[in-house]
Design a protein that fits this description.
This protein is mainly alpha-helical and 130 residues long. Helices cover 74% and strands 0% of the residues.
Length: 130
């Protein structure tokens, strides 16, 4: 591919395929980081994915979950608000039920324990955020 051909019609399919592969790889790496307990690295990878594809609801949802797991419930709420705004402006839709249910679980946990920045144990997280 030549630099001057970046926006030619023939390059569109390749660019979209590569963009999809990039997103898939970021998501897989984030999941591996989460499974290994490296939530901070998972958050960074998911932020990169959301930056690359702001309408990727699953990436926003995983990001909300990891933020809540690290005790950053405010960050999870902000992520939800960002998702709602993007989905409304870009696609004219609301978040799906799974995302709303996660938001509700994080909200309920915050109501039960309003202390900021409290990390959640893995066992509690599986009950609250999965």
């Amino acid at each position: 591919m030549l630099p001057e051909d970046l926006y030619e019609d023939w390059a569109v399919a390749s660019r979209e395929r590569l963009r999809g592969l990039y997103g898939d790889l970021l998501f897989r790496l984030a999941r591996l980081r989460e499974e290994s307990g490296d939530y901070a690295e998972g958050i960074g990878l998911l932020r990169s994915l959301v930056d690359a594809d702001p309408t990727n609801e699953e990436a926003h949802r995983r990001l909300m979950r990891l933020q809540a797991l690290t005790g950053n419930r405010l960050g999870a709420f902000q992520q939800y608000r960002q998702l709602v705004q993007v989905l409304r402006s870009e696609a004219g839709v609301e978040p799906d039920r799974t995302t709303v249910e996660l938001y509700d679980r994080i909200t309920a946990q915050t109501a039960n324990d309003p202390s900021p920045q409290k990390e959640v144990t893995r066992e509690a997280a599986e009950k609250l955020y999965l």
